[in-house]
Amino acid sequence: MKKLLTILCALCLVFALAACGGTQAPAESAAPAESAAPAGSEAPADAESYVVGVCQLVQHPALDAATEGFMAALTDKLGDSVSFSVQNASGDSATCAVIASQFVSDEVDLIMANATPALQAAVSATNEIPILGTSVTDYGTALGIEDWTGVSGANVSGTSDLAPLDGQAQILGELFPEAKTIGILYCSGEPNSKFQAETIKPMLEALGCTVKEYTFADSNDVSAVTATACGECDVLYIPTDNTAASCTEAINNVALNAGVPIVCGEEGLCAGCGVATLSIDYYDLGYATGEMAYEILVNGADVSTMEVRFAPQFTKEYNAANCQALNITVPEDYTAIAAE
């Protein structure tokens, strides 16, 4: 009987050992998966992506080129990691405010404000999201900062489209030395246009000319105000002005028929209604703004300490068709604006 019990115990021990060996196999089969992801390792994270809101005041060649340059710069550097929400306010400041508020609600990573009213709307909408302006003539005027030093100290910076006004005054004196009365034509609702008019006026008076200002409230009275100016002046000057830039055909129809030449603040205006300009390249200006945006988004640059930047170069240009129509011969150092 003792011998039988001994045999039975031995058999039970064998079965138990066999059962224990069977439970270990799944653990061994799982080992390769553990070695593929050792303790402490992390799966590679997706590249960070950014959403940029673009508010453009109105559609015209200069602002369009600035927006294109801005988007090209960020796309060149970030590829598919950046996306844009591009909104056009059709010249309405109130619409700029609505667009800026939507960008804030959408929690975009950066706002690019193209033109002064767009910048002012963005500043009113947020003091946290970084804002970069472009096609803004004078940031002190736009932001209401009297002792402007080039740095906002807030969530705003950008690029300025201010061309040397003394150089534009020299063009007027060079091309029209016999002009007695010069009219400055601009929109009364654009503070940067007023800034330019007030700055260039004494420069023109120094040429021995009488200078008169003519302002229109919006596009509805552009033709009538232009007609009045043409009837009283020998030549007109239009600073960088968004309303005028969107109404060049109307202005040109009046001025060309009256035989009154116009010197303009930038290329797009000149192509539409002028004879000559000292202009910047708005695409390049927008591209520089995009490079600033990259510094903020990727490199963590502090927008509040970034100095406003200016166009690196200016070009004397002329509108060949209008010069021919008005029998104006320009010096050889002027470049013809390419016809579209």
Task: Summarize this entry quickly.
The protein has 340 residues and is α/β, with parallel strands linked by helices. It is built from 14 helices and 13 strands. The chain has helices at 2-23, 25-36, 61-78, 93-106, 116-125, 139-143, 165-175, 191-205, 222-232, 242-245, 248-258, 267-273, 282-297, 320-325, and strands at 50-56, 82-88, 110-114, 131-136, 156-160, 181-187, 210-216, 235-238, 262-264, 276-279, 309-310, 315-318, 335-336.
How does this model look, in words?
The chain is α/β, with parallel strands linked by helices and 340 residues long. The protein has 2 domains: 50-161 and 281-307, Rossmann fold, CATH 3.40.50; 165-279 and 315-336, 3-Layer(aba) Sandwich (Rossmann fold), CATH 3.40.50.2300. It is built from 14 helices and 13 strands. The chain has helices at residues 2-23, 25-36, 61-78, 93-106, 116-125, 139-143, 165-175, 191-205, 222-232, 242-245, 248-258, 267-273, 282-297, 320-325, and strands at residues 50-56, 82-88, 110-114, 131-136, 156-160, 181-187, 210-216, 235-238, 262-264, 276-279, 309-310, 315-318, 335-336. The chain has a 7-stranded mixed sheet, with helices on both faces. A 6-stranded parallel sheet has the order 2-1-3-4-5-11, with helices on both faces. Helix 12 links the parallel strand 9 (262-264) and strand 10 (276-279). It is elongated and about 60 Å long. The termini are far apart. The relative contact order is 0.13.
